[in-house]
Design brief:
Strands 1-2 form a two-stranded parallel ribbon. The protein has four domains: about 80 residues; about 350 residues, Up-down Bundle (Na+/H+ antiporter like fold), CATH 1.20.1530; about 50 residues, no CATH class; about 150 residues, no CATH class. The radius of gyration is 32 Å and the shape is globular. Helix 1 packs antiparallel against helix 2, helix 8 runs antiparallel to helix 10 and helix 11 packs parallel to helix 13. It is built from 27 helices and two strands. It has about 700 residues and is mainly α.
C-alpha cells in the first residue's frame, strides 16, 4: 500500500510538473495555413490542470493515508501534507518553473473567501451537541478573555525583550505598535490544525469541544484585534477617542456577525418548510451568503457562519428528510476535508516560495513567549472555572496540559501575516521578519507539537471518547434526570444550568419551533433514537452480509436479542457452508438449522392487518440470509415474496423461472384466501360476542 501511494503521488507530481512546463516550439510562419488535428493549448489551461491535479492528489491521499501501516498511527495528516508541499515546491523551484503562474498560492483571499468557509460550516454543523452547550460558558471564557490575555502578554514582552537588548544585534527598529500587530495575528489558534489533530486522537467530547470551540471562536476575536491594530499601526497617533472606538468595534463586529448569522439561519428554516429536493443546495447557499454579506459589512463572517450553521442544524434539518440531510452533511464533510488538506499543502508551498528574513532572536523569543502566554491563560482561567464551578465542571491538570500543548498555529496566522504585504505603514524588512517568524512558529507547532501530542495524550492517560450507543433507555434516563434536577433547583429557589435548560426547552417547543419547523415534534431525541434503531435493525435484516456495520452502534443486549431471535420469535442460527466466512453477528453452527413449520404456518395465516400493525413480525433475520444447505428454502422464498409484495418491488423480472413465479403467485393467492378466511371468522366471532 505504501508503494501504491508513492506511485500515485509521483505520477501526479510528474503530471503537475508537465502541466507547468513552458512551450518551446517556435511559432509557425504567418503566411502558412495549418489545419491541426490536435491543438495544444497548454498555456490557457495550465492553471486548471494544475489545480485539478492537486485536488486529485489530495483526494487519493485522503483515501490511502489511513491504509499506510504505522504512518497513520504516529504521524498526523497535517504534518505529512506540509512536508509534501515543501517537497513539491522545492522540486518546482529547482526546475526553474514560476510558481506564481499556477495560482496555487495560499493568498489571504483564497484562504478566507474560499477554503475557510466550508471548514467552518462543517464544524458548526457538528457543534449542535449538548456537550458543546454545556461547555459553552468555559469556551467563551477561554476564547475571549484568554485571547485578550495572550495579546497583552505577547506584545509588551516582545517589546521589552527588544528594549532590553535580548534580540540579536542588527535588528531594525520596531515600534511597539508593530509588536502588538504581531501579537494580534500570532494568537490565532488555528481550528483547522486543532480539528485535524484532535479528531485523529479521539479525545473525549468535553476536551474536544473546549479546545476546538475555543480555537473556532478565537479566530473571530483575533481578526477583530488584527483589524484594530492595523488601523493603529497606520495612524501616526492614537487618541483616547480612537481607542474607545476600537473597543466598541470589538463588540459590534462580533455581535453584528452573530445577528446576521441568526437571521439567515431563521430564513433557512422558513424556506425549508416547503419540501424540495434542492434543500441541501439552498442551505449551503444561504449559509455562505451569511458569511459573505457579513464580511461586506466589516463584521465577523466566521461568527455569522457559526450561528447560521447552528440554526440550520438545530431547526432547518428537521424540515428536511433524513436522506437529504445525510446528503448535505456528506457534501460539506467531503469539501471540508479536501479544503483542510489543500490548506496544509499550500502552507508548505508558502514556506518555500516566500521571501524570508530570518532573525534568530526574534523567532526564538516569539515562540517561547507565545508558549508562556498560552500556559498562563490556560492555567489562570482553568482555576477560575474550577473555583466558580461553571457548569459543575472541573478541568484536571492533565487536560490543562493538553490544552496548552494543543495551541497550534496554522493558516489563519499565516494569512493574516501575508496581509501585511499590502500594509506600507510597516517597514518592509519588519514585514518579512514577522512573516518568517509566523511561518517558523507554524512549522514548530504543527510539526513538533502535532507529532508528539498523540504520545502525550497516552502518557497523560487522558480519557478518550467512549463508544456511543443508540439506546432509548439511556435517552429517557437522561431526560428524567434533567427534569428531576430542574425540579430540585426550582424547589430550593436556584436558577442553575438544569432549570435554565428546562425553561429554554419549554419556550423553544412552545414558541420557536412552531414557527421555524412544520413538524416541531421531529426534534425529539427519543423519537430520533428509536428511528435510528429501527432503521439499523431493518437494514441488518435486509442485508445480513453487512450486519456488522449496521449493528455496531446498538447496545449489546439489543444485538443479542436480535441475534437470538427473541424480537421476532425465531432463531438466528446459521449453517456454515463450504468456503464461507461467517459474519460477526452470525451464530455459526455445525449443523443446518431445524425446520420451522410452526413459524411458516403462523406467517401463512397472519392477516394483512396484523402485519401492518406489528411490523416487527416481518424481521426474522435468519429467514432472509442465504444458507447453503438450508432445507427450508421454500419458506424463504415465501417470506421473500411477502416482503417484496409489501414494498411494491416484486415483479416477474425478479424470477426468471416461470414455474417458480407461477408457484409464488399461487402461494400468494393461497395466503390471501387464508387471510380472508381468518379475518371473516374473526369478524363473525366478534358479531356473535356482540349479540
Amino acid at each position: 500500500m505504501t508503494m501504491q501511494t508513492v506511485a500515485v503521488g509521483l505520477a501526479l507530481f510528474l503530471l503537475i510538473t508537465f502541466c507547468l512546463g513552458q512551450s518551446t516550439s517556435p511559432p509557425p510562419p504567418k503566411d502558412l495555413i495549418l489545419i491541426k488535428l490536435v491543438n495544444w493549448k497548454i498555456e490557457k489551461f495550465k492553471p486548471y490542470l494544475a489545480f485539478i491535479g492537486v485536488l486529485t492528489f489530495l483526494t487519493l491521499f485522503k483515501i490511502f493515508y489511513p491504509k499506510i501501516p504505522y504512518v497513520a498511527k504516529y504521524i498526523p495528516q497535517s504534518l505529512i501534507l506540509v512536508v509534501s508541499g515543501i517537497a513539491i515546491a522545492a522540486a518546482v523551484n529547482a526546475s526553474g518553473i514560476s510558481f506564481e503562474e499556477t495560482k496555487m498560492v495560499l493568498t489571504p483571499t483564497l484562504f478566507f473567501d474560499f477554503l475557510l468557509p466550508p471548514v467552518i460550516l462543517d464544524a458548526s454543523y457538528n457543534l449542535s451537541n449538548r456537550t458543546f452547550l454545556d461547555f459553552l460558558a468555559s469556551i467563551l471564557i477561554y476564547a475571549i478573555f484568554g485571547t485578550l490575555i495572550n495579546f497583552f502578554i505577547i506584545g509588551p514582552l516582545m517589546y521589552g525583550m527588544d528594549v532590553a537588548g535580548a534580540m540579536e544585534p542588527g535588528l531594525p527598529n520596531i515600534p511597539i505598535s508593530n509588536y502588538f500587530l504581531f501579537a494580534s495575528l500570532i494568537i490565532a489558534v488555528d481550528p483547522v490544525a486543532v480539528l485535524a489533530i484532535f479528531q485523529e486522537i479521539g479525545v473525549n467530547l468535553g476536551l474536544y469541544f473546549t479546545v476546538f470551540g475555543e480555537s473556532l471562536l478565537n479566530d473571530a476575536v483575533t481578526v477583530v484585534l488584527y483589524e484594530i491594530m492595523v488601523e493603529f499601526a497606520s495612524a501616526t497617533s492614537a487618541s483616547v477617542k480612537e481607542v474607545g472606538y476600537g473597543i466598541a468595534s470589538f463588540f459590534t463586529i462580533s455581535l453584528g456577525g452573530a445577528l446576521i448569522g441568526f437571521i439567515m439561519g431563521a430564513v433557512s428554516c422558513l424556506l425549508t418548510r416547503w419540501e424540495t429536493h434542492l434543500a441541501p443546495m439552498l442551505l449551503i447557499l444561504l449559509a455562505l451568503f451569511s458569511y459573505y454579506i457579513t464580511t461586506c459589512l466589516g463584521w465577523s463572517g466566521i461568527i455569522a457562519l457559526i450561528c447560521c450553521g447552528l440554526m440550520q442544524s438545530g431547526y432547518a434539518f428537521h424540515n428536511v428528510s433524513s436522506e437529504l440531510v445525510n446528503t448535505l452533511e456528506e457534501i460539506i464533510q467531503q469539501i471540508s476535508e479536501v479544503s483542510e488538506a489543500l490548506i496544509f499543502l499550500l502552507l508548505g508551498f508558502q514556506i518555500m516560495t516566500t521571501k524570508l528574513e530570518w532573525s534568530t532572536g526574534f523567532c526564538l523569543w516569539a515562540f517561547v513567549i507565545c508558549t508562556f502566554a498560552r500556559a498562563v491563560s490556560i492555567l489562570v482561567f482553568s482555576q477560575i472555572v474550577n473555583c466558580l464551578k461553571i457548569n459543575n465542571m472541573r478541568i484536571s491538570y492533565r487536560e490543562q496540559l493538553i490544552m496548552i500543548y494543543g495551541g497550534l498555529r496554522g493558516a489563519v496566522a499565516s494569512s493574516l501575516a501575508f496581509l501585511l504585504k499590502d500594509l506600507h505603514a510597516v517597514n518592509e524588512k519588519v514585514r518579512e521578519i514577522i512573516i518568517t517568524c509566523t511561518l517558523f512558529i507554524i512549522a514548530v507547532t504543527v510539526g513538533l507539537q502535532g507529532l508528539t501530542v498523540k504520545p502525550l495524550v497516552k502518557l497523560s492517560q487522558i480519557k478518550l471518547q467512549e463508544k456511543q450507543t443508540l439506546s432509548v433507555i439511556n435517552d429517557l434516563s437522561c431526560r428524567i434526570i434533567d427534569h428531576t434536577l430542574a425540579g430540585v433547583e426550582a424547589i430550593i429557589g436556584s436558577i442553575g444550568r438544569n432549570r435554565s435548560r428546562e425553561l429554554f426547552a419549554r419556550m423553544d417547543f412552545k414558541f420557536i419551533r412552531p414557527i421555524l419547523q412544520k413538524r416541531p415534534q421531529r426534534h425529539d431525541k427519543v423519537l430520533r433514537t428509536y428511528e435510528q434503531i429501527s432503521l439499523s435493525l431493518h437494514w441488518a435484516t435486509v442485508k445480513p452480509e453487512k450486519s456488522t456495520e449496521y449493528l455496531k452502534d446498538l447496545p449489546e443486549t439489543l444485538v443479542n436479542r436480535f441475534l437470538r431471535g427473541d424480537m421476532t420469535g425465531g432463531g438466528s442460527h446459521r449453517y456454515k457452508g463450504r468456503d464461507e466466512e461467517g459474519s460477526l453477528f452470525d451464530v455459526i453452527t455445525d449443523e443446518p438449522p431445524p425446520r420451522r413449520e410452526s413459524r411458516g404456518l403462523f406467517l401463512r395465516v397472519r392477516p394483512p392487518r396484523e402485519e401492518s400493525e406489528r411490523p416487527e413480525w416481518l424481521r426474522p433475520t435468519s429467514m432472509i440470509s442465504e444458507r447453503p444447505g438450508n432445507p427450508d428454502k421454500q419458506y424463504k422464498e415465501r417470506f421473500l415474496y411477502v416482503m417484496r409484495r409489501k414494498s411494491s418491488e416484486f415483479s416477474q423480472a425478479d424470477f426468471p423461472d416461470q414455474a417458480q413465479f407461477a408457484q409464488l403467485r399461487s402461494l400468494s393467492h393461497y395466503t390471501d384466501m387464508q387471510s380472508d378466511t381468518h379475518t371473516s371468522s374473526k369478524s363473525q366471532s366478534r358479531s356473535d360476542e356482540t349479540q
